[in-house]
Amino acid sequence: MARTTDGDGTPVPQRLLAAATRLFADQGYDRTSVQEIVEAAGVTKGALYHYFGSKDDLLHEVYARMLRVQQERLDAIADADAPVERRVRDAAADVVVTTIDNLDDASIFFRSMHHLGAEKNKQVRAERRRYHERFRALIEEGQKSGVFSTATPADLVVDYHFGSVHHLSTWYRPDGPLTPQQVADHLADLLLRALRP
Q1: Distance between CA atoms of 72 and 107, rounded to whole angstroms?
Q2: What is the DSSP string of 78-143?
Q3: Which of 58, 124, 151, 158 lies deepest, with the highest CB count within 10 Å?
Q4: What is the CA angle 176-182-188, rounded to 5?
Q5: Cβ atoms within 10 A of the Cβ of 150, count?
Q6: Is 22 buried (19+), middle (13-18) or exposed (0-12) by CB count in 10 A?
Q7: Would you say 94 and 73 are in contact if contact means Cβ atoms under 8 Å apart?
Q8: 3-class DSSP assignment, residue 155
Q9: Does residue 36 contact residue 23 with C-beta atoms inside 8 Å?
Q10: CB count, 10 Å around CB of 47?
Q11: pLDDT band per the 50, 70, 90 thresholds, residue 5
């Protein structure tokens, strides 16, 4: 039976994910072996396969854990009792901050998504679509109520914002001049300026 925690109480699945994330970010998914992951995590291959069926499953979970957090936060923002403009701004800023907070996960995913098997790829696309649809529904709510311009289709507005988010890993640096919240505020303000009638 695989141990579920190490000496400091860290569960084995989290240790495996932390090791995989570090290695995938440093050397790429395709150049990282299962052996390197288990050695970095201090577990056996049997422990890895007990929790994750394959390296592919680890890659999927690296991204899925970030997307779960983002979806929960978006749902809370979208359901809040606040004006739609405030909820859109909060949602637009939140996805930037949570992406920067999980920059390795995001960059690994966008570099390595093509390595996922067909079923996992389909699952991730469905999860991302659900997130984008909830975000789009906020834009549409603002457009229908006259708060936002209808000149640009909501789909294009969403693609515009998420295009910026998906490229954060190529240019954002933690030691740069802007904090994650400052970047988030700037991008959210740009989005809102583009939406105003």
Answers
A1: 21
A2: HHSSS-HHHHHHHHHHHHHHHHHHTHHHHHHHHHHGGGS-HHHHHHHHHHHHHHHHHHHHHHHHHH
A3: 58
A4: 130
A5: 13
A6: middle
A7: yes
A8: helix
A9: yes
A10: 20
A11: very low
Over the Cα atoms of the chain, what is R_g? Answer: 19
Q: pLDDT by residue (tens digit) across 124-177?
A: 889 999 999 999 999 999 999 999 999 999 999 999 999 999 899 889 999 999
| Burial class of residue 15 (count of CB atoms within 10 Å of its CB; 0-12, 13-18, 19+) | buried
Q: What is the spatial distance between Cα 111 and Cα 157, in angstroms, rounded to a whole number?
A: 24
CB atoms within 10 A of CB 145: 11
Claim: this prediction has a pTM higher than 0.90:
no
CB 86 within 8 A of CB 155: no
